[in-house]
Amino acid sequence: MRYLFPLFLLLLLLVPQGGEACFGPKLYLGIGSDEGSDRLIAEVVSLYIKEKTGTEVVLTSLAGLAPTAALQQEKVDLALSSETLAEAVLALPELRLHLLSGERPRNDLQFTTVLPALAKLAQRLPTVDLAPFVAAVAAGEPAAGVARRLLSGQRWI
Questions:
Q1: Are the beta carbons of 48 and 151 closer than 8 angstroms?
Q2: What is the DSSP letter of 83?
Q3: pTM for this entry
Q4: Could you identify which of 9, 43, 56, 131 might form a hypothetical disulfide with 147, taking C-beta atoms 3.0 to 4.6 angstroms apart as the criterion?
């Protein structure tokens, strides 16, 4: 009898238990078009946030919805826009792209590191000539690979 309990405990530990994976917080980044520059910047922002904060970023199509409207309706947390707006957290005038932020990245405690990371990216990204990277995406290279090459080549990740 005294050997049954340790044997039972050992069997209990060895039997696979069903469980669910725990995933961290996610932000949703809306992109209006799948053009080379839009897709590239979306992938750069996504990868940079993931590497610097651990927050997963899911790219989502705005499906014809204006970026500001999608943010107000809380369909996305971040959005790329061609409009020049003062509240943009990242501005790339040469590509006519601006990254706008919704309420969750600004106010939710689980995303407190996202906006400081984007502020750092906003200082760095305009110093790089993005034309060859945009051309590579337009030529058919995957935007995620080009984004990784850009960020690692600059030693930002």
A1: yes
A2: S
A3: 0.82
A4: 43
Edge to edge, what strands does the sheet with 97-101 contain?
A: 56-61, 26-31, 78-81, 97-101, 90-92
* Interior angle at CA 157, CA 129 and CA 124, nearest 5: 40
- Other Cβ atoms closer than 10 A to 65: 16
Query: Based on the number of CB atoms within 10 Å of its own CB, is 91 exposed (0-12), middle (13-18) or buried (19 or more)?
Result: middle
CB 146, CB 152: distance < 8 Å: no
Per-residue b/e over 118-155, b at no fewer than 16 CB within 10 Å?
beebbeebeeeebeebbebbeeeeebbebbbebbeeee
**Distance from the Cα of residue 50 to its chain's centroid:** 6
Angle at alpha carbon of residue 59, lines to 38 and 141, rounded to 5°: 50
